[in-house]
Amino acid sequence: MGIQILSPQLANQIAAGEVVERPASVVKELIENSLDAGATQIDVEIERGGSQLIRIRDNGSGISKAELGLALSRHATSKVATLLDLEQIMSLGFRGEALASISSVSRLTLTSKTQTQNEAWSALAEGRDMAVNIQPAAHPTGTCVEVADLFFNTPARRRFLRTDKTEYAHIDEVIRRVALSRFDVQIKLSHNGTLQRHYRIARNESGQHRRIAAICSKNFIDNAININADYDGIQLTGWLGLPTTARNQADMQYCYINGRMMRDKLINHAIRQAYTDKIPTDLYPAYVLYIQIDPKQVDVNVHPSKHEVRFHQARLVHDFIFQSLERSLQQGIEQQTLDSIT
Ligand code: ADP
Ligand code: MG
């Protein structure tokens, strides 16, 4: 076989291999798009664990009729225009790959209306050349993305899907992560026509506590220390579980860097180190932590699924986190001991 240029669909399907692992990854990408569009309400409807249908509706800025086709093309993004933008990225998305990838492995319909348009329009990409077909539709300002029959044309991937229950559990976890990162956004999740989660906008601390209790348990929030520290432009806030909330699985560890959920080795190490000698080595601490740092100080462009970051001043970030958490933890433990004897 001589050298050939891949068809757009095949190129997108190959890219999809990296970002679209399962229904939950689709949900993650689409919700990130809704958040980037400034949505304050996001409704997620799932059928059959997401293998039959994923529908995400938001009240964000919408996409104009003229740009619907572009939104579905590869490397098309409204979020990054220059290298400088990439170095100070504030949005969740920036690769311009998600919609193109997802639409190459599903039947995707993108419906949207901007504030200034009088009517909504719907787009779907089909066939090898990913030609986009645009039709009038009914929709309020905002966007609705429907992803039906995920992996219908990539049987090998389709076979990798687990049971509806398992796939739905992954989606539920994605929703928890988002819900913990944006108290100012209402999120609803339904499965097979039944409302499963309804996270209301949390306008104050008690609202936040209610949401955290719903996601992490009441026991966690009742036994967590409120963290609030900053150093040299890095801000660390959130809730750190006292040793009594430690778990036998690492299933309650939420860490956000500039609003993005991360599983970063360096950060994990700093947190773990703060708990040294405070919890048994076979238990895992529970926490919800937020790190705010100048985007120029961190490179988020490391991994396609964006779980890893690179800090320019890694040592400094590590030590700041370790020291602040250790100090707060020590104080929290002393306070808890005091409370128990008085
Ligand atoms: P990226 O998020 O990396 O820019 P995507 O493929 O996810 O790439 O989306 C492509 C573009 O489509 C975005 O840059 C944005 O302009 C537009 N878009 C996608 N989803 C939405 C949405 N829910 N609301 C408004 N615009 C959207
Ligand atoms: Mg995106």
Q: Which regions contain 5 or more consecutive residues with pLDDT less than 50?
A: none
Bound molecules: adenosine-5'-diphosphate, magnesium ion
**Helix residue percentage:** 25-40%
The description of the largest β-sheet is:
8 strands, mixed
How many domains in all? Answer: 2
* Spatial strand arrangement across the major sheet: 5-4-3-6-2-1-7-8
CATH-level-2 architecture of the largest domain: 2-Layer Sandwich
Output the helix-strand order: HHEEHHHEEEEHHEEHHEEEEHEEEH
Strand content: 25-35%
CATH topology of the largest domain: Heat Shock Protein 90
Distance between the termini: 80 Å
Rg on CA atoms, Å: 22 Å
The tally of beta strands, per DSSP, is 15
- Discrete helix count: 11
CATH class of the largest domain: Alpha Beta
Average pLDDT: 92
What is the CATH superfamily label of the largest domain?
A: Histidine kinase-like ATPase, C-terminal domain
Structural class of the secondary elements? Answer: alpha+beta
* Apparent shape: globular
Keywords: DNA damage, DNA repair, Endonuclease, Hydrolase, Nuclease
Family: Belongs to the DNA mismatch repair MutL/HexB family.
GO molecular function, one term: endonuclease activity
Domain DNA mismatch repair protein S5: 212-330
